[in-house]
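Is this the right way to post structure tokens for a design question? Let me know if I should format differently. Anyway, here goes:
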């Protein structure tokens, strides 16, 4: 309404007297300001308020003041200061008054409006009281009958029925929310349909007369407009029920009864055929599977379990076990989703094993208790059951029979209310194949985090065990799932052992290059590899006893380490040799241990393992070929043999020899395999090639240096030792040097290996020595050397045909003819016995060049006696009574330092021998 104008009353404004008083106060305050006197430089006395009061009139107004008097008493500057102060105070009071007037004016307007409204309300109340008084005074008393009429009873029942309808419709939203929160979607759908029936009953008339509200003067649509508004609210729940029911199909642990109730809800509310309902169900289960896989992937990224860091440090054993267990659980979780989807779909829709659950629900709704195969208890829903489950169910007792006996219309015999078995099988098969593709993709990512064959096989075994115990998948589906899991595991297993083999190959190549450099540079690391004889007699560190008192496990570990060091030392594996072999054997040995865990009893697993082993043999053959190529390339790189380059070749030959024996871990797993046999043959061939080059180079160097560094004239030696036939010092020096060189090849307990090396070395040495002796033929010492060589040849026997060259006998005969022509004493020429005895005395020193013999001490020594010499002297015992003959040329011992080791200076003053001799 229009606002009534109002006028500010005089009481709301300040009075003129108060303004005058305020102004007088301001003037008095302003006059207290002091002003400097510019005439004499002295300050004027302060204008006090008492003096100002005397000047002002009694009412405080400055209008009666005489200006001349003020100007005579005060200076102009003081007057101006007072004037300025009064003006400022007036302006401030004016602004304050303006603000105060504005606020109070607004309050006055609001107050006036409220007063007018209150007045009108009071007037209406008074009028209402007056009407009530008049109505009461004019009312007549009607006699109350003791018994109501039949019409009134019907009207009461109609009102009660109407109240029941309204109660159900008004409470429907609250009940629907509660049912949706408890995920009882079938109850919510039934209540929604019942509310729709109630709404129609309220707005329409039935022919049976149960709900003829107009007979009693009640028009629901006009008198209760709330009914339509309430139905507009309830009608919105249809989409919510459908949406929430559809989303609930994605839950992982959804039971069969809950799934059937949800699918029947969609069938009721959307009037969908069951085939389309099945499609919706499978689509939601596909999304459920995708959601679970996405959540697992996000958890892996959040926890830092993904393989983005490449080959990082190995995790602990406990963390690896936890990772394997987590992988098993994830795989079983997604397999459970897949199996549960198929199993529930069959129990709900399939008729293969009896009447499906959906059919049972439809028949129960259509036939009621007369149904032959009723559904489970929680699916036996009726309107009475629904109303009794609602709060304040007593209000619904007045509902008519048409409402309480309501049931949705369904036709169990309709084609839309059933799913053909062929359609069900085809849709489930298509969905299952798509789900297996998702499972395969996820499993491939999960297995990338597993680094060993045992871990992968554990996951595969757990998956197979779970599939075998699953009752929701048929045999064909289990076979398909196992096939997918086997394919993924097989590819990952191949990738794991390929990575292991590649790592072993790289480690072998790097370690070989490092060790070859150490041997070539003759560093401290290569001492045991260049001095194998000294390495054999080195004592490993003995475990300390105090460790057993502190921790028995430490003592046991140290004892095992000591035992391993002894075994390695006895096997002849030096530190660098062991390092190179460990680089390849360590990875291969670990791989073979893991391959041993691949086992299974069923035919499918055996077939898979056969294929894996076949593939592994091919990959192992490629690995063997790579190792052989690395060693062959290292040998080919050494084209010119020198004293520095020969040591790496010897080291490579020892590696090839170790790889060729059956006990090597790199080839012991499948010794009957053709690739292993070929690899061993290649290693033997490579070892023999290097050995031939080494033998030729060593024999040539030894023979050349030995005859050059010793006395060149053999005639003088014959004169000096005419009565003692023996080989020359040059020959013995060469033989001893050759024996020392053979020891650099390593010492082995294999008799056949020693025999093969000794035979080859002696053959090369014999060839080079005969060439050198032919150039010196014609003297007695050469003849003796030839006889000594023939004694060595006879020791080898007829088996070594390459060691018994026909030219040796011809050279001896030719030399004898020359000596006979020179009329040399026959006692110096017929010395076979002396030469043989000399060989028996030096056989221990020449053992590396002689054929090894197997001597049985128990068979040759009588009981009660101990005979040690035959165990060492395999080629005869020397005559004890014979005078001692030194093996090497010896100097006359000095009077002092008789046991001092000195270097012997030979006749050639330009050379110093590199070998030392013991002075006797």
């Amino acid at each position: 309404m229009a606002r009534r104008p109002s006028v500010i009353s005089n009481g709301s404004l300040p009075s003129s007297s108060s303004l005058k008083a305020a102004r007088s106060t301001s003037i008095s305050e302003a006059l207290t300001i002091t002003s400097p006197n510019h005439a004499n430089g002295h300050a004027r006395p302060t204008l006090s308020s008492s003096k100002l009061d005397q000047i002002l009139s009694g009412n405080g107004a400055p209008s009666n003041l005489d200006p001349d008097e003020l100007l005579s008493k005060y200076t102009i500057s003081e007057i101006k200061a007072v004037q300025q102060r009064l003006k400022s105070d007036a302006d401030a009071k004016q602004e304050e008054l303006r603000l105060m007037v504005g606020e109070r004016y607004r309050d006055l307007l609001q107050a006036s409006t409220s007063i007018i409204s209150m007045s009108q309300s009071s007037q209406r109340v008074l009028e209402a009281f007056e009407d009530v008084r008049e109505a009461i005074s004019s009312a007549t008393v009607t006699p109350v009958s003791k018994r109501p009429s039949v019409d009134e009873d019907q009207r009461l029942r109609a009102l009660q029925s109407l109240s029941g309808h309204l109660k159900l419709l008004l409470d429907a939203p609250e009940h629907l929310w509660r049912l949706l929160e408890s995920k009882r979607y079938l109850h919510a759908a039934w209540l929604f349909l019942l509310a729709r029936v109630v709404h129609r009953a309220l707005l329409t008339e039935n022919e049976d007369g149960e709900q003829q509200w107009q007979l009693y003067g009640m028009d629901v649509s006009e008198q209760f407009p709330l009914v339509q508004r309430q139905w507009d609210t309830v009608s919105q729940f249809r989409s919510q029920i459908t949406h929430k029911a559809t989303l609930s199909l994605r839950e992982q642990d959804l039971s069969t009864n809950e799934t059937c109730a949800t699918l029947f809800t969609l069938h009721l509310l959307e009037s969908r055929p069951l085939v389309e309902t099945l499609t919706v169900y499978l689509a939601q289960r596909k999304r459920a599977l995708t959601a679970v896989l996405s959540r697992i992937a996000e958890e892996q990224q959040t926890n830092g379990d993904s393989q983005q860091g490449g080959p990082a440090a190995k995790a602990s054993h406990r963390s690896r076990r936890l990772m394997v267990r987590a992988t098993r659980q994830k795989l079983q979780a997604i397999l459970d989703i897949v199996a549960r989807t198929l199993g529930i779909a069959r129990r709900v829709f399939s008729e293969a094993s009896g009447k499906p659950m959906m059919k049972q629900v439809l028949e129960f709704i259509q036939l009621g208790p007369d149904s032959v195969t009723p559904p489970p208890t929680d699916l036996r829903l009726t309107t009475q059951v629904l109303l009794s489950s609602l709060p304040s169910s007593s209000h619904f007792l007045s509902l008519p029979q048409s409402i309480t006996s309501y049931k949705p219309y369904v036709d169990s015999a309709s084609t839309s209310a059933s799913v053909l078995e062929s359609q069900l099988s085809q849709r489930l098969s298509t969905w299952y194949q798509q789900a297996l593709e998702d499972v395969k993709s996820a499993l491939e990512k999960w297995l990338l985090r597993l680094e060993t064959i045992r871990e992968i096989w554990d996951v595969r075994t757990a998956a197979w065990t779970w599939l075998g115990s699953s009752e929701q998948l048929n045999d064909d589906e289990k076979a398909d799932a196992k096939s997918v899991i086997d394919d993924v595991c097989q590819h990952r297993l191949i990738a794991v052992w390929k990575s292991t083999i590649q790592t072993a190959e790289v480690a072998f190549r790097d370690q070989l290059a490092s060790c070859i450099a150490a041997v070539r540079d003759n560093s401290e690391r290569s001492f045991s590899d260049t001095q194998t004889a000294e390495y054999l007699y080195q004592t490993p560190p003995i475990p300390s006893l105090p460790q057993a008192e502190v921790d028995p496990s430490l003592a046991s570990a140290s004892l095992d380490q000591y035992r391993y060091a002894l075994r390695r030392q006895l096997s002849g594996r030096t530190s660098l040799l062991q390092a190179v072999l460990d680089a390849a054997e360590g990875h291969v040995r670990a791989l073979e241990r893991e391959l041993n865990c691949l086992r299974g009893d069923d035919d499918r697993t055996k077939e898979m393992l056969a294929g894996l082993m076949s593939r592994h043999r091919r990959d192992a053959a490629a690995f063997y070929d790579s190792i052989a190529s690395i060693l062959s390339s290292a040998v080919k790189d050494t084209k010119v043999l020198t004293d520095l380059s020969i040591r790496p070749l010897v080291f490579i030959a020892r590696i090839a020899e170790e790889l060729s024996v059956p006990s090597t871990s790199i080839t012991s797993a499948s010794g009957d395999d053709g690739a292993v046999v070929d690899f061993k043959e290649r290693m033997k061939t490579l070892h023999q090639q290097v050995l031939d080059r080494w033998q030729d180079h060593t024999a040539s160097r030894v023979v050349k240096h030995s005859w050059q560094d010793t006395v060149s004239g053999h005639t003088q030696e014959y004169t000096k030792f005419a009565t003692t036939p023996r080989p020359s010092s040059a020959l013995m020096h060469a033989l001893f040097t050759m024996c020392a060189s053979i020891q650099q090849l390593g010492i082995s307990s294999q008799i056949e290996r020693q025999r093969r090396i000794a035979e080859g070395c002696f053959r090369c040495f014999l060839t080079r020595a005969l060439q050198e002796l032919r150039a010196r033929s014609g003297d007695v010492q050469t003849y003796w050397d030839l006889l000594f060589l023939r004694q060595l040849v006879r020791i080898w026997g007829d088996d070594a045909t390459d060691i018994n060259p026909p030219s040796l006998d011809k050279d001896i005969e030719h030399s004898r003819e020359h000596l006979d022509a020179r009329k040399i004493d026959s006692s110096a020429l017929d010395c076979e016995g002396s030469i043989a005895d000399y060989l028996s005395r030096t056989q221990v020193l020449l053992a590396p060049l002689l054929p090894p013999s197997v001597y049985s001490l128990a068979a040759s020594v009588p009981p009660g006696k101990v005979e040690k010499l035959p165990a060492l002297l395999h080629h005869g015992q020397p005559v004890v009574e014979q005078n001692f003959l030194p093996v090497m040329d010896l100097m006359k011992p000095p009077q002092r330092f008789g046991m001092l080791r000195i270097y012997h200076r030979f006749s050639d003053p330009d050379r110093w021998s590199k070998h030392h001799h013991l002075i006797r």
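Format looks fine. Someone answered above. Worth noting: The radius of gyration is 60 Å. Strands lie at 902-903, 916-917.
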